[in-house]
Structure formats: structure tokens, C-alpha cells
Amino acid sequence: MTRRSVIVGTGSALPANRVTNAQLAERVDTSDEWIVERTGIRTRHIAGDGETTATLATEAARKALAAAGISPEQIGLIVLATATPDQTFPASATRVQTALGINDCIAFDVAAVCTGFLYALSVADNMVKGGMADYALVIGSETFSRILDWEDRATCVLFGDGAGALVLQAQDTEDRGILASRLHADGRHNDLLYVDGGVSTTGTVGKLRMKGKEVFRHAVVNLADVLNEVLGVAGHSADEVDWVVPHQANKRILDATAKKLGLPPERVIVTVDQHANTSAASVPLALDTAVRDGRIKQGDLIVLEAMGGGFTWGAAVARF
Ligand code: UT7
């Protein structure tokens, strides 16, 4: 038997305000037709007053804890992936910790933008396996609406806000839990997807900038590579995978990646139409959606993957 991190509960949270493409077209020079055809996005949720990365993360965490039947005091570790924290410091994870009523546990944020949840999951998995905690909360939460340039139609239509969370439990098991994960970064591509401000440079928060076409090209290649790599490490082939839970940036990226791997589209969880790109929140939001609607069941072999600013990219294989 091996000590592994088993996913025992998932949860998610979305801001109350749901915005359709048609509503966006009232304030930006775009159309429902263009957005659907190029991205597959139909709606996104936008945070309102009082809704922040930490409040959304807390709601998602509460639901994941309830699904797992775990009380907050049992949590020994919180890893929160975000590029849009409530404050520059302290970590938003500590706000979630306090909101959950936990007085002492390990809590920190991880910044790897859209790949943030894969980085957070891998860090938490290794800490759980190493004995630092028996129960961990892994959260992806973002309020990208607050770093969008609402004058730039090429980016502002693509993103949304939200949060997703899961609870990991240390278990002695042969084949359940996180079986393998692989992470990558290549900082040479900083200028293709970045925020044009920062604490130590401009002293401002800045706005998101992206050369979409080039990001798209790299995304399909990097994601197919890392999926093949992580499946190889886990000792599984693509045809054994029950569900792929990808980062939700663009329906065309999901289709192209699945095709490259020879995976039927029916085995890919798609939520980009409903949530748009929620950066680090998109993978756990998609996971929770498919767990709650009954598609992902205990015993299923699932693969999570993401790619984003940095560039960063990564994937994980788990037996649910
Ligand atoms: O999460 C991190 C990873 N991010 C991604 O993976 C994003 C990857 N990139 C993409 O998803 C796609 O490249 C986009 C959706 C961003 C863009 O799609 P595209 O097919 O690459 O379009 P494009 O940027 O080449 O733009 C095509 C045309 C341009 O007009 P011209 O120059 O052909 O006349 C744009 O000005 O579409 C125009 N355009 C728009 N038109 C209506 C750009 N944005 C819009 C818009 N509405 N919102």
C-alpha cells in the first residue's frame, strides 16, 4: 500500500451576475456570433460588490468540505491558486482559512495563472504524501474581470470569474488518488500573455494583455505533449482515460487537443460555454460540474490539464 492523496470532495462557486455575449455586445464592439464561433463561449459570471477571490474560494471550499463530510478543523493545508488575490499580501488562502474558522493550518497561494490549479494540486499532493497534512484543501479562484481592459474586445470577451475546490485525503491505497503529475514553465513567452503592471515595476495592478493566436498555437502542442507525458508516467494509455478535465480557454483548443490524442470529444468535460476562461478556477469548476451531474464517478480514471501565462503548463492523472 502507498500513501496517496485521494479526492474525497469537490465544490465550486460562481458570482451571481451572469453575463451573456449579447449583453457584452451592448458595451463592446463584438457579437454573439463571433464569440461563439471563435471560442465556444456563451456566458460568463462577473463578480459584483463584495464578491472577491477569497469569498468565492471560501464558498467553493465549504461545498467541497460538505461533499467530503470533513469539518474545517480537520484541514491541515490550504493551497490557493490565483493570479487575482484580494491583497498583494497576505495570501488569500489565509483569508479563506479565517472565513472557514480554522485557526492553525498551513495556508499559502500559488501563482501560475491558468495552470495555477495544476501547480497547487501537485504541491498539495506532494505535501500530503510527505506527511505534512492528512487533509488538504486545493482551490483555484479568480476575479479576472478586475484585470480586464474592457476597451479591448480581443481579450475582455474571453474571461469570467469563479472558484473551484477539492479536498484531498491521505489514504493507504494501491490505485486511488493522484497517480502522477507533471509541470512545466518557459518564461521566454512572457510577452504573449501577461499583465502590464505589478507591485515591483509600475506600482499598479495593470491589465491583461494577450497575443491570442500565438498562445493558441503553443497551447495545443504543449497540452498534447504534457498529456502524453503524464499518462506515460502513470502507466496508462489515452484509451483508458474515462474523462479529460481541461482548462477551459477555448472550445477549439479542447477539440484540437482531444483530436491530437485520439480521444473522443464525448470524454472531454466542457464548461467554457457557461463559464468562459476562469484561469486557475476553470479546472476545478469543470471537475465539480461533472462530479455533481454524475458523469465522473468513483473509480474513473481522470486527467486534468492546463496551460497559461508564463508560459506554464501541466497535467495530472487521478483515479477518482
Ligand atoms: O488561458 C490562457 C490561454 N489562453 C488561450 O488559450 C487563448 C488562446 N487564443 C484564442 O483562444 C484565440 O486566438 C482567440 C479567441 C483569442 C482569438 O481567435 P482567433 O481566431 O485567433 O482570432 P484573431 O485574434 O486572429 O482575430 C480575428 C479577427 C480580427 O479581425 P481582422 O484583423 O481579421 O479584421 C480581430 O480584430 O477577429 C477580430 N476580433 C473580434 N471581432 C469581434 C477580435 N476579437 C473580436 C471580438 N469580436 N471580440
From TrEMBL:
Its EC number is 2.3.1.180. GO terms for biological process: fatty acid biosynthetic process; secondary metabolite biosynthetic process. The keyword rRNA processing does not apply. GO terms for cellular component: cytoplasm. The last Arg residue of the ACP-binding site is essential for the weak association between ACP/AcpP and FabH. Belongs to the thiolase-like superfamily. FabH family. Catalyzes the condensation reaction of fatty acid synthesis by the addition to an acyl acceptor of two carbons from malonyl-ACP. Catalyzes the first condensation reaction which initiates fatty acid synthesis and may therefore play a role in governing the total rate of fatty acid production. Possesses both acetoacetyl-ACP synthase and acetyl transacylase activities. Its substrate specificity determines the biosynthesis of branched-chain and/or straight-chain of fatty acids. This is Beta-ketoacyl-[acyl-carrier-protein] synthase III. It comes from Sphingomonas parva.
